[in-house]
Design brief:
The chain is mainly α. Helices cover 80% and strands 0% of the residues. Helix 2 packs antiparallel against helix 5, helix 5 runs antiparallel to helix 6 and helix 6 packs antiparallel against helix 7. The longest helix has 34 residues. It starts with a helix and ends with a helix.
Amino acid sequence: MVKETNTKSSVSKDKAQKKSIWSRKRDLVYLTFFLIHIPVMFLVDLTPMYPDSIRPQFLTDLRNWYIETYNDRLFSNPPAWFNVYLLMEALYHLPLSLWAIRALLRSDPLVPVHLIIYAVQTIITTTTCIAEYLSWPISDSEKLSLGQLYVPYLALSVFMGVDMFGRLQDRLAA
């Protein structure tokens, strides 16, 4: 009898996992985020890593516009630790983001495992960046502008982390 219940339970879980991305609203939010995050990484965040010989001028112009618009010293005069964060973004965020797009679309059962790690790492790095810019001698309006970029990123990461924790907890309790 127990075996039969477990089989029925795993069948219903398989059916739940096969739902369309359009019916999985939180996963759709994460998918949209990763679809936006990848171009931002390539177009702004990671451009200092490109060799000058292959970096198109428009990428330099776009990054300069960002720095001038938001007065983000993390990009104009980065502390040593920020370069480590960029390296983590290139070596971890980028591959994970590419994987996450396909994984979210197919409702891969490993999504919660990978995205909880991503969320925790992103919470830590984004919180560090927020603490850094709040210490700068810039105007409150400039800090608010930076907050409009960093805080939603942090909020989504916290939401994702709590969501993935809940999903993993549900699986482990089953």
